[in-house]
Amino acid sequence: MALILNIETATDVCTLTIARDGKPWFERRCDTAQNHAVQLPLFVDEAMEALNASNEKLDAVAISAGPGSYTGLRIGASTAKGICYALKCPLISIDTLQIIALGAQATEGLVRPMIDARRMEVYSALYTHDGKRVCEPEALIIDEHSFADELQKGIVTMCGNGAEKCVPVIQHPNIRFVANIVPTANLMCQVAEQKYNEKAFEDVAYYEPFYLKEYMAIKPKKLF
């Protein structure tokens, strides 16, 4: 049993949750894109005030590890590491695609969470309906032949903001689309508790988010 601060910043949504024994106790959320650097420190301050008021201390910090937004992941990781250093508590990382898969709440077959990676590309992996990873995360280009083999074998639940690209492209009776699933700190709570009990901790000094692809800066267009 533990008191764990969960931070999720891999997509446009920024969330923070303190979980007690795997259940949310304190929650904050901001849906405004590109605002993580402003909102997350405020959420952390409010979380620490709540902990001080209850005279409790954190046992660990859990971070959504990626893949996802390069900037969002950097902000989340640096914040989490700073808290771990300050409070001398362990760091836990959780696969962002697993978080989305759990949010779909599928009861059968496989789950294919997807994160939008621009144009027709997505970051994706494959999971059992209870959250066990079947294949490693990869960057994929969506077309009418995508996921044909797994769809032929049975039900596949597709979720996450990248799954929206599949709706007009892939037609199959075994597809189940679940809309509006985003990775949030609330969905991390039980996995973080399990990892804490297993002592599955990261090296705080050397931890880096899982970007999947190298960051590529885009040159601004000339105005004149």
Distance between the termini: 61 Å
Spell the H/E element sequence.
EEEHEHEHEEEHEEH
Helical fraction equals 25-40%
The largest sheet is:
5 strands, mixed
Shape: elongated
**Total DSSP E strands:** 10
What is the subunit arrangement here? Answer: single chain
Description:
The chain has 224 residues and is α/β, with parallel strands linked by helices. It contains five helices and ten strands; from the N terminus they run βββαβαβαβββαββα. It has helices spanning 36-53, 70-87, 96-104, 148-153, 189-197; strands at 3-8, 14-20, 23-30, 60-64, 91-94, 110-116, 121-128, 133-141, 156-159, 175-178. The chain has a five-stranded mixed sheet, sandwiched between helices. Strand 4, helix 2 and strand 5 (91-94) form a beta-alpha-beta unit. Helix 1 (36-53) packs parallel to helix 2 (70-87). The protein is elongated. It starts with a strand and ends in a 27-residue tail after the last helix.
